[in-house]
Amino acid sequence: MTYDFRHYMLSLKSGRTNTHLPLRGGMILSIQTGKRNYSEPRLDGLSPYDYESFEVGIFSKDGSWLNPFMEPDMKNKSWSSHWSEYEDVAGWVPADVVQEIYDDLREPDETG
Question: What is the reported pTM?
């Protein structure tokens, strides 16, 4: 069963709410919120369900940033448009798009 990505988010002592989710091929999806992140609202300490948009990045297996806008197997995904040629992090990504990214890149489980 795939959960809403917000189910996995933690509220840290710093007040920021974030998570790093494992994806297929050893990639990691980084999702961040808070007053120092590109999220809406730009406030610390809220429930992940209180945010409308999130700061999102994807790390490769070796820990380097992946830019979906430039990756051959990702650039044709509708969600890759939240990045540009020069950005490793996408800001103000709507919750439904973050869920789409997670569902698209996660390891398949018994639900597919």
Answer: 0.91
